[in-house]
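Database export, one record per block. Field names are fixed; values are copied verbatim from the stored entry.
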Amino acid sequence: MEQDVESPAISRHSKIREPAGKDLPKQLAAMDRARKVQRYVQKDGKCNVHHGNVRETYRYLTDIFTTLVDLKWCFNLFIFVLVYTVTWLFFGFMWWLIAYLRGDLDHLADNLWTPCVNNLNGFVSAFLFSIETETTIGYGYRVITDKCPEGILLLLIQSVLGSIVNAFMVGCMFVKISQPKKRAETLVFSTNAVISMRDGRLCLMFRVGDLRNSHIVEASIRAKLIKSKQTKEGEFIPLNQTDINVGYDTGDDRLFLVSPLIICHEINQNSPFWEISPAHLAKEELEIVVILEGMVEATGMTCQARSSYVSSEIKWGYRFTPVLTLEDGFYEVDYNSFHDIYETNTPACSARQLADMNGRARLPLTWSMASKLSQQGLAPEAERQDPRTQRNGDVANAETESNV
């Protein structure tokens, strides 16, 4: 895998735009195919998988904290308000019940009577006292007396449980707010992936970028090919996941994502695209899922951004338009051209066919002559059976022809 930062010497006015070389019927056909494709991962990174018939729903309650964090904001806020309201009402009822059982409500006008809670004359005042106790507001109008041991016990219980509720709910809200999911919104992937030649080899490439000035620390990139397959034994594996090497063996998968980078996958014998040609690619039902991970510099939390490319979004014979230019004392990134591609000369064959053609072009003279004679059926039977005799005969014939 190679990571490209475009040359800073490129002028701003020399950018090549993608030519509109496709006619309208082909565009409509491509759009129709794209509409029928069922994605495994959406372009925005959301996984298009729904879990059905989950019977062991109690497992969600065993990890109630994660369950609350994963809820939508509307449900999370509703539960937040509900928990506090229920606890206030419950302990308000308990304070009212103590006052009722002790007869405090029957001696409201008796100045000689010592109630459990001063100035508690009904359920509403008991509810307000519960709020003041749990939130430690302490207005000073309603106070507990030392002649009520059951009230002192209830005060201790409410203080402890109130602290637990505060820690649980405030912690849940804090984790919900500080989740790095929104940070992934500023990590962008190119709309299309491209296949073109690079250093004499066919390569699959896509571009990633970070819109923020605060960087992603320890950023790394991964890619998966999602494609159903059938084994030799006849077993059908839906949505089989195959690793796409984007530099794991060389360390190029670890990114310094300060400016947009072009992630490159070399299509070699170990690549799942080794035998895929442009015609084959147009008929394939496959999806490339790319995953960018790293730590948010501001919070230290791990962030993950995802995107995907279906076969109609993989452009054969294109390259990415450079977006980095050198200005007066700094480099500038033009994100208006981040998704732009332009057409380039690329062989319309698979990487395997290209390697075979290059291999035949590099064969020695004796091997090429022998292969031609064998294909034409002109070589003797013994020479065709013995490759060494075949090569010696070719050399002798070549020397005879040169002497003549």
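Remark 1: DSSP finds eleven helices and 15 strands in the chain.
Remark 2: The first strand starts at residue 3 and ends at 4.
End of record.
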